[in-house]
Design brief:
Blueprint: E1 6-11, H1 19-32, E2 37-42, H2 44-47, H3 54-71, E3 79-82, H4 87-97, H5 102-106, H6 109-117, H7 124-138, E4 144-146, H8 152-169, E5 177-179, H9 214-222, H10 240-252, H11 256-262, H12 268-295, H13 297-326
Parallel strand pairs: 1-2, 2-3, 4-5
Helix pairs in contact: 3-12, 4-7, 4-13, 7-8, 9-12, 10-12
The protein binds tryptophan.
Length: about 325
């Protein structure tokens, strides 16, 4: 256990999970648990950079916690906690703010995008979002940070902050590396294969939600756009069929060639039915387990409190070292 490298990742409890999140992120976080010391958090402090309804935030946080457990995040193997339960994250974020330049934060693409999208609420938290993320990562001596392409810039900024801090105070902060999932990670909209599958897609049929019923799943795949050919063949042209093949491949573990063989001479209708069926097979047990966990509030509480306690112990040590280096009396 001790010589395992540390992985840290977090996800915001700010919306429903999609099949894209599941395949691109969650499944990967589950698989990493055997080979790494995994620390995962629900980033509720990050979520409030955009206005949240209090009841909904609570509901979503618990739901997401239950879904993670349902997917196979094992509280015995990994530390899985709720970010706001540990004060060390906000405290280190403040300290790191003083080692981060205004110019650096203004260059963050996510800040630019989000301030356009939420033009009526460009709060300072949204601006400092990356220093809180840096705090999350740096508190645990993280080696690897599994994130999507969109978060890579934030991990790079984290490295710059760490380097700057170490330049002043010596070797205090561990340099993290982003870990971007390979192929299969980019699951595209079922309605427009040039766009990422997203819950904010105007066309609801483009996006499979983790909570979708078998009926919804069948319907959405039935309506999925394909291409103008008529064979189940991966052409690398980013068509709907390429996307369906990728989805089927990650879910079943079959290679593209095996899939092409399996469906040789068959129509798109048959293929879509099989993809839908594979997704239903994968999601049904997760939905069932997540529901059971969600009904057992005291078990959930035991899990997140225990994880927070352990994460606090680790992070407090790091925070004290950092404060001492800065020159605070501790
Ligand atoms: N910003 C990340 C996202 O929206 C979530 C996140 C918060 C995170 N803290 C993190 C991811 C630390 C990796 C490491 O996807």
């Amino acid at each position: 256990m001790d010589n395992k490298k540390t992985v840290f990742s977090a996800i915001q409890p700010s919306g429903e999970l999609t099949l894209g999140n599941y395949i691109g992120a969650l499944k990967n976080l589950v698989n990493l648990q055997d080979d790494y010391k995994c620390i995962y958090a629900l980033a509720d402090l990050h979520a409030i950079t955009v206005r949240q309804d209090p009841e909904l935030l609570k509901k979503r946080t618990l739901e997401l916690y239950a879904i993670f457990l349902g997917c196979g995040i094992d509280p015995k193997k990994s530390l899985f906690f709720i970010q706001s339960h540990i004060y060390t994250h906000s405290e280190l974020a403040w300290l790191l703010n003083c080692y981060t330049q205004y110019g650096e934060l203004s260059r963050m693409t996510q800040f630019k995008d989000k301030s356009q999208k939420h033009a009526d609420n460009i709060n300072v938290g949204l601006f400092c979002y990356p220093t809180l993320m840096a705090a999350d990562i740096l508190l645990y001596g993280t080696d690897f940070v599994p994130v999507g392409e969109d978060q890579k810039q934030h991990v790079e900024l984290t490295r710059n902050i760490a380097q700057r801090f170490n330049g002043i105070y010596g070797d205090v902060l561990k340099m993290p590396e982003p870990m971007i999932p390979e192929i299969g990670a980019r699951i595209m909209s079922l309605q427009d294969p040039t766009k990422k599958m997203s819950k904010s897609d105007e066309n609801k049929n483009g996006c499979i939600l983790l909570s979708d019923s078998p009926d919804d799943i069948v319907k959405k795949f039935k309506k999925a756009v394909t291409d103008s050919y008529s064979e189940v063949k991966f052409r690398g042209e980013h068509t709907g069929i390429d996307n369906l093949i990728s989805i089927y491949s990650v879910i079943t573990g079959k290679s593209v060639i095996e899939i092409e063989d399996e469906f040789a001479g068959k129509g798109y209708g048959d293929f879509k039915k099989c993809v839908a069926e594979a997704i239903i097979q994968e999601l049904t047990p997760i939905q069932k387990k997540a529901k059971e966990y969600l009904e057992d509030k005291s078990y959930l509480e035991e899990c997140y409190k225990d994880a927070a306690k352990k994460a606090l112990e680790i992070s407090v040590k790091k925070l004290s070292i950092i404060k001492e280096k800065i020159g605070f009396i501790i």
